[in-house]
Amino acid sequence: MPTIQRRQRVPGSESWCWPPETHRVLRQVLSSRPIASPKELDLNLSGLRPVGEFDGLEDAVQLLCRHRNGCILIVGDFDADGATSAALMYLCLRSLGFAKVNFFIPDRFELGYGLTTEVVERIKGSGPTLLVTVDNGVTSIDGVAAARALDIDVLVTDHHLPGAELPVANVIVNPNLHNSHFSGKNLSGVGVVFYLLAALGRELDEPGCVTEYLDLVALGTIADLVHLDHSNRILIDEGLRRIRAGRCRPGIRALCQVSEIAWEDVTGTNLAYQVAPRLNAAGRLDDMTVGVRCLISDSETDALAFAESLDALNRKRRVIESKMKAEAALLVDEEQLLLSGHLPTILCLFRDDWHEGVVGLIASRIKDSCHRPVFAFTSTDSGQLKGSGRSVPGFHLRDALVDVNAAHPGLISRFGGHAMAAGLSLDLSGFDTFRAAIARLGQERLSPEHLAQRILTDGELKAADLNLEVATLLRDAGPWGQGFPEPLFEGRFELLGQRVVGNKHLKMSVQLVGSVGRLDAIAFNMEPGNWRKGDVLTLVYRLGLNDYFTVPQIQLVVEFIDSDAVTEAY
């Protein structure tokens, strides 16, 4: 059973000088978020880290300019960050007058991840003079070497952690290179591209070019679940403003339409949980080329057609994921039986019929339910296993894979990622060895504290705070996301009624204990408990706005329900 804990306040926040109009609830929430002072609430573009501080941009700009009349091919990745990165690079280079620009998104099932030798072999016939990787490339040792051997220049733009060896690219732009002094380590792939194009725009006397596409930057940044430091929040906020004003790509408006979101009211949460999954579905099940074409299309009609294709793929993904999640739950039950009710500190799950593009989602879902690192594997046509891992705070996945690889040379054929997510390939014969090796690391590095399930809240709200004004203030204080979590509150409520809606969601009427007034609450994908009218429940909830009605109403979006919960200090 999870423990409900209050978030810790930022040290020194009690002495902050807040703007006089700042609501008490907003102070309560923001004083426990990772901001240095209330000044970071200013999300104006002028607050971004300066472009001139980013190592490698000058060399990259000069390389691009040398190929202004050449043939530039953008090599992207097959997730939302990769798609928005490719679209941003393509659109901006075209608008800056580059003669010939195209893009290529490798099919993950045929060509794998990144700039591989197979990709170089596939695209060399199109005659590129410069390859530009976006959201990939920093570990593409062989692919970059193959391109350079053909006298093709290579510009790598990436944000993933590098390995011990770097590719022999002409220029590498990555804030996470070991010798980089740039403090923006949390940039997404599209954020790195934004900075590069900002520098290029300055060089070509078009400094505002890239800001025209901040809607793409916002979508890619929030979809990639990077840490929302001040710069990332600025990029997302500026992009959301463009979308709400209608000054966005037709493809983003179309994705909002198929997601049943009014683009005028779009939020970071909408982008993360409704728009991004539809874009990601192309890379998971098919070919992300359709996603990029949706984003770069200038035609409203064509963009909507692409978005409808993405929506259909997402519906298919949901069906596949639901089946795989049920099968994964059975594997977890088998592990518990095998170990007399105890789970290993790190779970490694494998079925040879799982869909390669969905194993990452399964690892994430099981990680959430079991609160421990999880690797999910499936077999490929080549006879290898492909796995995807998701972690909990305190266990760095990529570092763990580095250590397993060092202890068992040749066991892992390739791997990459970061602290919370990673991917790898290995032979079927090596699965048991890998599972044992990663389990040993888990036993060494994961304590019961790491594996304890906690729900961190921002405390309780008074009855007077449960209103549209506060709900709107909280919504507009975002963007919320990874490392800057959306406000979550707790409270004791009397149950007035409950029913199931949409076949799987729990709809409730509740009343805050000690007050009067009925409130609507909804718990998505949650079944009714053995509660009766008049029972007092502890609810952990977000204060949401229900726009279904002509006049918006507040709604408690319930994340957790307990009839006998105890809150601990944290």
Structure description:
Helix 13 (359-370) links the parallel strand 7 and strand 8. This protein is of the alpha/beta class. The protein has 3 domains: 3-32 and 458-568, Beta Barrel (OB fold (Dihydrolipoamide Acetyltransferase, E2P)), CATH 2.40.50.460; 54-312, inorganic pyrophosphatase (n-terminal core), CATH 3.90.1640; 343-451, Diaminopimelate Epimerase, Chain A, domain 1, CATH 3.10.310.30. The protein is 38% helix and 19% strand. It contains 17 helices and 18 strands. The strands form 4 sheets. A 5-stranded parallel β-sheet has the order 3-2-4-5-6, sandwiched between helices. The chain has a 5-stranded mixed β-sheet with strand order 7-8-9-11-10, with helices on both faces.
